[in-house]
Write a structure and sequence with these properties.
The structure is a single chain. By secondary structure, this protein is an alpha/beta fold. It folds into 2 domains: 141 residues, Rossmann fold (3-Layer(aba) Sandwich); 139 residues, GAF domain (Beta-Lactamase, 2-Layer Sandwich), CATH 3.30.450. 46% of the residues lie in helices and 19% in strands. The strands form 2 sheets. Strands 2-1-3-4-5 form a 5-stranded parallel beta sheet, sandwiched between helices. Strand 3, helix 4 and strand 4 form a beta-alpha-beta unit. The protein starts with 6 loop residues before the first helix and ends with a helix. The relative contact order is 0.11.
């Protein structure tokens, strides 16, 4: 289900997703081979390089999960199969491809049977063949990750809406209730900070809830351009840090907190803004349509709860 008000955000996130390249780690002790692998894949992937298994493990520790690993089998310090086997516990979804000669069959059979190697390519390898294999591996990785992510999102949706229902049904003081609501929303959307401020006139005006671990106050400055856009459009607004849209020059808040993405959503009732919900990320986070649908349902639930608050 696509929420009409969120269509422009969906398109904005799709553009970000298209620009992002999957990570590919290539490992070979021969500099010429390593350079050839890099040049073969740099157009379609974000290629990381390592000259041996130990160095490759360090790269993974720094960079995190990659979609595909291509490793030579015969390398000093650590065989390719041993290196790949060490990556399985932490990165089970990564697709592993090994480059080998015919003399390494015994090691390969053991690794393949243990589920540690997706494919092996014999030397000398053909660039076109290897590109085809890697393309299929990357697609397989993306498909598996998407299925896992969708399952997690479905669970998150059920849990979040249930938590919000419980939170707003309690007799807890309003600001504590808002704090609990932001604490529930933030992890469900993978955000680093969440801020909820009531704006409608009445006894509850300016009540605030916040959660997160940013360096300075989570509260967004009143001169943030997103606030003006939200008040004018009465619709969700999203800012992504990029060359075309750098942080506002007159607002140090973004740079002080190293914020890379900011989403601001008005909670409305009969064309009146009841509250502003802010989500902030320290890295660009791809929000899928299901994430936006969850945000919509949560915002509607909170807006209804605020309308029902007798003190408001």
């Amino acid at each position: 289900m696509t929420i009409p008000e969120f269509t422009h955000i969906t398109e904005q996130m799709k553009a970000v997703t298209r620009r992002q390249k999957a990570k590919l780690l290539v490992v070979d002790d021969e500099p010429d081979n390593l350079d050839l692998l890099y040049r073969t894949f740099r157009r379609d992937f974000h290629v990381l390089r390592a000259s041996n298994g130990i160095e490759a493990l360090q790269v993974l520790e720094e960079e995190g999960e990659v979609a595909v690993i291509i490793s030579d089998q015969r390398m000093p310090k650590m065989k390719g199969t041993e290196f790949l086997s060490r990556t399985v516990p932490e990165f089970p979804n990564t697709m592993r491809i090994i480059l080998t000669g015919f003399t390494d069959v015994e090691d390969l059979v053991e690794a393949i049977n243990a589920g540690q190697v997706y494919r092996y390519i014999t030397k000398p390898w053909d660039p076109a063949e290897l590109q085809d294999v890697v393309a299929v591996a990357a697609e397989t990785y993306a498909t598996a990750n998407n299925r896992i992510a969708e399952l997690e999102r479905s669970q998150n949706q059920t849990q979040l809406l249930g938590k919000l229902l419980t939170i707003f049904a309690s007799d807890t003081p309003l600001e504590e209730t808002l704090n609990q609501a932001t604490a529930a929303i933030m992890p469900a959307l993978g955000a680093d900070a969440c801020y909820l401020k009531i704006t409608k006139s009445g006894d509850c005006e300016d009540a605030i809830g916040e959660s997160g671990s940013l360096n300075t106050a989570i509260a967004i400055p009143e001169n943030d351009p997103l606030i003006a856009k939200v008040k004018e459009s009465l619709a969700l607004q999203l800012w992504l840090n990029s060359r075309k849209t750098p942080p506002p020059e007159d607002i140090s808040y973004y740079t002080e907190n190293a914020i890379k993405q900011h989403l601001l959503l008005p909670l409305t009732y009969r064309q009146e803004i009841l509250a502003l919900l802010s989500l902030q990320w320290l890295d660009v986070c791809t929000l899928r349509e299901s994430d936006l649908n969850l945000l919509y349902l949560a915002s509607q639930q909170i807006a209804f709860a605020l309308i029902s608050q007798k003190s408001c």
